[in-house]
Request: fold
Amino acid sequence: MGQRSGRQEGSKKPEVALSETMEAEIEVQNNKEEIEEVKAKNQELRSVFGMADLKNEAVGLYNLGQTCCLNSLLQVFLMNIHFTRILRRITVPSSLARRTSNVPYQMLLLLEKMQCGKCKAVCPEDLAYCLSKHRVELFVQYDAAQLFLTLWNLLKKQMKKPELVEELSDLYTICIQEHLACQKCSFEIKSNSTMLTLPVPVLDANSHKLRNLVDCLRYFFHPEELTGQNKCFCQQCGMKTPFVQSMKLVHLPQTLTLHLKRFCFERSSHSHKLSHSLPFPQELDFREVLTENQCQADDSEKAAWQYELFAVVAHSGSTSFGHYCAYIRSLTECKWYCFNDSHVCQVSWDDVKCTYGRSNLNWRETAYLLFYMKKHPQQPCPGVSECL
Ligand code: ZN
Reply:
């Protein structure tokens, strides 16, 4: 599904047959010249905002065939000035072969193409080709949460500078402490783990619909009793005993990604999408979501847990067939845009609210990934290094 107009319109290949190497070199050169031009033009603004929002209007990405999911995620990455500040400092790979297969570099070229051109939309074919070398094939329907993780891991792996890898981790990584406590004695196991996305359940254990995002988050952090068949072996008691499993929040990153678990795979033969209404707020304060007991963080960490909604990746259709688009709030203009492949338009908060979902309207757009941005960025992020 989605628009497939891309390849012909978006491609700007020269008519004269050039060798692949020369063609790529020219493109790199052209990009460099364009970069210099824009850099000079926006010198003053860039120091304040970074480059991601300096274009006059948001630029679309042509669909190359089932790439609506990739396009939506690319827009979410590239509209995030905290991310593009890191991306702009990567080392350009030395050889052409390395450049064509380097995801951060190809993403940077795409960003330049989007910002420097005068097109309403550009074709992400070089990046798509680059991703296909890393087993992210074209013409395949991806799950946005999975593809987000794949892209992030490729970026992290291929950013050579350790300080950039660390900044990328700081920007997106959530730290959680998991507790398992024996109910017969005092034995307790604690383990720290990191996550790129918080997998937020939309139903409770009895398959009842949770009312809104805050309820979902509270449910995620709610302690769970492991009894009956779920009992664990306690070293101290020397037998299987009832345990209580709980999660404590240790650290939240600058860009917080929430994955609404709307796809339900209870039985392998039958999967379905949960389309019921699930309102999410524009402003989210985690100190009001969690109890004191559910946090393992000091006051300065918790003071930074105030968020504003930055982007929504929405899915329409069924589990096996569907379409993605992204609603993103420009960080400098404070306006919402809907990025639907090559088509981009300004929208209102009411339009974004349409992605809350509605039962019995399975084909309508429903929010699938939510990206929240810290209101008051913390420097540096203290929790991550301890967790990683
Ligand atoms: Zn015990």
